[in-house]
TrEMBL record:
Membrane-topology annotation of the record: Multi-pass membrane protein
Subcellular location as annotated: Cell membrane
Residues annotated as transmembrane: 44-60, 67-88, 94-120, 132-152, 164-190, 202-218, 252-272, 304-325, 331-349, 356-380, 400-419
GO MF annotation list: branched-chain amino acid transmembrane transporter activity
CDD domains from the UniProt entry: TM_PBP1_LivM_like (cd06581)
The organism of origin for this protein: Aureimonas ureilytica
One cellular component term from this protein's GO annotations in UniProt: plasma membrane
Keyword Membrane set for record: yes
Protein's name in the database: Branched-chain amino acid ABC transporter permease
Length: 430
């Protein structure tokens, strides 16, 4: 076979593979609709679509630029918190109390402190030695932290005593989702300024630590998020189940989420095939060669890191509004970091269609493992008792609920064994 005929055969074979996999996934979804009912299956698809948006965000970070981000949960929870703040109804008790002006004053101090630290860190422009700049920046940051904390402590105490928490601004959900992306992207920009110059393993450690800091702050900031008391009910961008019923409301939410996912994917696919996408792949594959050709490696990595984080924040906001409750302690690394990585690895890094396929498939496996395991364990208990006189342990059902971790581990092991590049790997042009 000549090179030309081989290059034509590879895309045709890849297309057939994609069609077969999508058809199999569609058949699995239809089976769940038949077994679990339309309302349950639609809820699962809404959450899977939100996870797909997050997975696409990770895919462009890892698949396009090779950035090893293990702080996914931090961007998700930050985006969710920003959307809650924008969209939750106004709390009149907060605005009528003494905590509001005190909080405003504290925020002014915070902005001034950030500007002062940033100014000191740029002292190299006037010839200050690098070592002295580092010492001055650290000292300024420490003093600024103590001053700002002294302003925030009485404000937060007054808010919790008078109003419980600050509430929200009562804005439309669309504004909240936009704010979610902006806040997550802003956090990524700050992290990128500090960490993108590090090696991949150090970047992973840094993002993981910052993710835990964000979650811990939101979990303990009762004045902002009510902590573990949760904030609910959150508004929907479409009519709620109380207005038009569970199935119609969830179907509309699914349509809106799917539309956002399609638009995001089409825009990214267009960018992927443009010179920007080729430049990103060049930086990923050979950073030294790309840099020697005059490419701004750090700038391009910052772009992709911020863009991916914005999608993660958006996905987190979509998830939290769908569940209609915000609880910072409900965000865990297993569900909101490890599972996302499994989706991208299984689907195929560098291919957005693969990330979407992996997200939907893995979330279906993750969700359906519990009822499937309960049914199998109940069958084993009945047959074992009637045929062999087996006395099952009292906690058999609780053991079945833990089978999802085993099933996900087995799934990723099989994929890495038989399809190490994912079931829909990145298409490379020859």
């Amino acid at each position: 076979m000549t090179d030309a005929s081989a290059s034509r055969a590879r895309p045709a074979s890849g297309l057939r593979r994609e069609i077969l996999l999508v058809a199999a996934l569609l058949a699995l979804v239809l089976l769940i609709y038949a077994l679990q009912g339309s309302a349950y299956a639609t809820r699962m698809l809404v959450e899977a679509a939100a996870y797909a948006i997050i997975a696409v965000g990770l895919n462009i970070q890892w698949g396009y630029a090779g950035l090893f981000n293990v702080g996914i949960m931090g961007f998700i929870v930050a985006g969710a918190a920003a959307s809650v703040l924008m969209t939750f109804p106004v709390n009149p008790a907060f605005w009528a109390g003494t905590g509001a002006p005190m909080l405003g004053e504290a925020l002014v101090w915070l902005i001034g402190a950030v500007l002062l630290v940033a100014l000191v860190s740029q002292a190299r422009r006037i010839g200050v030695p690098k070592g002295l700049i580092t010492a001055m920046t650290l000292a300024t940051a420490a003093i600024a932290f103590m001053l700002v904390s002294a302003k925030f402590d009485p404000a937060t105490t007054a808010i919790e005593a008078e109003a419980g928490f600050i509430g929200g601004f009562g804005l439309p959900v669309a504004v909240g989702w936009i704010a979610a992306g902006i806040v997550a992207g802003g956090i990524a920009f700050v992290i990128g300024k500090i960490c993108l110059g590090l090696r991949a393993d150090y970047l992973a450690i840094a993002t993981l630590g910052i993710s835990q800091i964000i979650k811990t702050f939101l979990k303990n900031a009762d004045w902002l998020t009510r902590g573990t008391l949760t904030v609910s009910p959150l508004p929907w961008p479409v009519p709620t189940p109380n207005e038009i019923g569970f199935l119609w409301a969830r179907s509309l939410y699914l349509a809106l989420t799917a539309l956002i996912l399609i638009v995001v994917t089409l825009l990214l696919e267009r960018a992927y095939r443009a010179p920007w996408g080729r430049m990103m792949r060049a930086i990923r594959d050979n950073e030294a060669a790309a840099s020697s050709m005059g490419k701004n490696v750090d700038g391009r990595r910052m772009e992709i890191f911020v863009l991916g984080a914005m999608l993660m924040g958006l996905g987190g906001a979509i998830l939290v509004h769908f569940t209609s409750i915000f609880d910072p302690s409900g965000f865990v690394d297993l569900n909101h970091t490890f599972l996302i990585w499994v989706m991208v690895i299984l689907g195929g890094a560098g291919n957005n269609r693969g990330a979407i396929f992996g997200a939907v498939f893995v979330y279906i496996v993750w969700t359906m493992s519990e009822p499937a395991a309960l049914s199998l364990f109940a069958l084993a208990r009945d047959w074992g008792s009637s045929w062999f006189g087996w006395v099952p342990p009292a906690d058999l059902d609780s053991r079945a609920l833990q089978m999802r971790v085993f099933v996900i581990g087995l799934t990723i092991t099989l994929v890495l064994r038989f399809a190490p590049d994912g079931v829909l790997p990145e298409r490379l042009r020859h």
